[in-house]
């Protein structure tokens, strides 16, 4: 059994160490393609591409990773000229586009697959909570009160016959959710990788559900983006970026072990934890439904004012398929 102290130590070791640049990158031209991101397993495709010098082989500038403090910082930094490409969750991108910010989706990053979920709703092992209906009025530990995971959990409870609006979410840092749950200060919590794997390994908690299933069992979760002006001025760079992302996604999906050390070094995790955690599923191409489903969910739960055709957000050459991938 893992003690509370050991869990906190493991969680702290697994936490990411974001680094912010001290000076605005937009002030000086660079001979690289600056990629803004929050370091997660989802960026393994470009880590692999960088190691293989894929951009140089195509006659493009090499990539330079700029680690951001959080995903919300990526869009304004990109629009402000601090990078050429950025990666992150689709939901803040939908909100930014709805507000009129000049961004487009360039290439897919990670898919959500219910059978391979990396965000889990956990309760104590001996909790009386067994169904969604049992969550009525319960205290829910979350990273953020109004993010998509909180909204998806409300939707999951309601879809299961409960009252999602009766949930009482409280913000708790990811590394503290386990101790709060085991101590009974909260009734349930949303755990993302690697914290979910660590928590389940203690046998003190168990899986109740997968909140993102309320959106769909399969949909695009994150994407690479660029500004309208950059896409228009650099079509060959954008098409090269799209091709490299697709090639790297195809390889890394089939060779996960090849990216363990890359991801561990980049995110500051222990390689053993990366290897044992649920790894991101990289999208090679997606179909329109896999893009539209999360957008419609965002509109239904008022993350954006109203739904629109997601094709408005796609840059030329965005890899769309009939059946999706992988």
In the CATH hierarchy, the architecture of the largest domain is: 3-Layer(aba) Sandwich
CATH superfamily of the largest domain: Periplasmic binding protein-like II
The total beta strand count reads 13
* Terminal CA distance: 37 Å
What would you call the shape? globular
Helix and strand succession?
HEHHEHEHEEEEHEHEHEEEHHHHEH
Q: What's the helical proportion of residues?
A: 25-40%
Strand content: 15-25%
Describe the structure.
37% of the residues lie in helices and 18% in strands. The protein has 326 residues and is α/β, with parallel strands linked by helices. It folds into two domains: 179 residues, Periplasmic binding protein-like II (D-Maltodextrin-Binding Protein, domain 2, 3-Layer(aba) Sandwich), CATH 3.40.190.10; 92 residues, D-Maltodextrin-Binding Protein, domain 2. The strands form three sheets. Strands 2-1-3-12-4 form a five-stranded mixed sheet, with helices on both faces. Strands 8-7-9-6-10 form a five-stranded mixed sheet, with helices on both faces. Strands 11-5-13 form a three-stranded antiparallel sheet.
Strand and helix map with partners:
Elements: H1 4-14, E1 33-37, H2 44-51, H3 54-57, E2 63-67, H4 74-79, E3 85-89, H5 90-98, E4 103-108, E5 110-113, E6 119-124, E7 139-142, H6 148-159, E8 168-171, H7 174-182, E9 188-192, H8 195-201, E10 205-209, E11 218-220, E12 222-227, H9 228-233, H10 235-254, H11 260-267, H12 271-276, E13 281-282, H13 288-300
Parallel strand pairs: 1-2, 1-3, 7-8, 7-9
Antiparallel strand pairs: 3-12, 4-12, 5-11, 5-13, 6-9, 6-10
Helix pairs in contact: 1-7, 2-10
């Amino acid at each position: 059994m893992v003690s509370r102290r050991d869990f906190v130590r493991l969680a702290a070791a697994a936490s990411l160490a974001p680094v912010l640049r001290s000076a605005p990158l937009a002030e000086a031209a660079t001979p690289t393609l600056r990629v803004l991101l929050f370091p997660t397993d989802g960026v393994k495709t470009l880590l692999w591409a960088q190691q293989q010098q894929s951009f140089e082989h195509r006659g493009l500038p090499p990539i330079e990773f700029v680690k951001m403090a959080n995903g919300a910082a990526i869009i304004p930094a990109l629009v402000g000229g601090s990078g050429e490409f950025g990666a992150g969750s689709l939901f803040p991108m939908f909100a930014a586009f709805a507000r009129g910010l000049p961004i487009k989706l360039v290439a897919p990053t990670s898919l959500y697959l219910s059978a391979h979920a990396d965000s889990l709703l956990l309760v104590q092992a001996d909790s009386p909570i067994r169904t969604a209906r049992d969550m009525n009025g319960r205290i829910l530990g979350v990273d953020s009160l109004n993010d998509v995971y909180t909204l998806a959990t409300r939707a999951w409870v309601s879809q299961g016959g409960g009252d999602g609006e009766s949930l009482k979410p409280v913000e708790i840092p990811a590394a503290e959710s386990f101790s709060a749950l085991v101590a009974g200060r909260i009734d349930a919590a949303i755990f993302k990788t690697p914290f979910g794997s660590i928590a389940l390994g203690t046998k003190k908690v168990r899986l109740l559900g997968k909140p993102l299933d309320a959106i769909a069992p399969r949909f695009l979760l994150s994407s690479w983006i660029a500004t309208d002006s950059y896409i228009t001025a650099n079509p060959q760079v954008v098409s090269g970026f799209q091709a490299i992302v697709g090639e790297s996604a195809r390889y890394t999906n089939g060779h996960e072990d090849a990216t363990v050390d890359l991801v561990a070094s980049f995110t500051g995790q222990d390689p053993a934890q990366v290897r044992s955690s649920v790894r991101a599923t990289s999208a090679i191409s997606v179909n329109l439904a896999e893009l539209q489903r999360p957008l419609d969910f965002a509109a239904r739960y008022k993350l954006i004012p109203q739904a629109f055709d997601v094709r408005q957000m796609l840059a030329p050459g965005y890899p769309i398929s009939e059946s999706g991938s992988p």
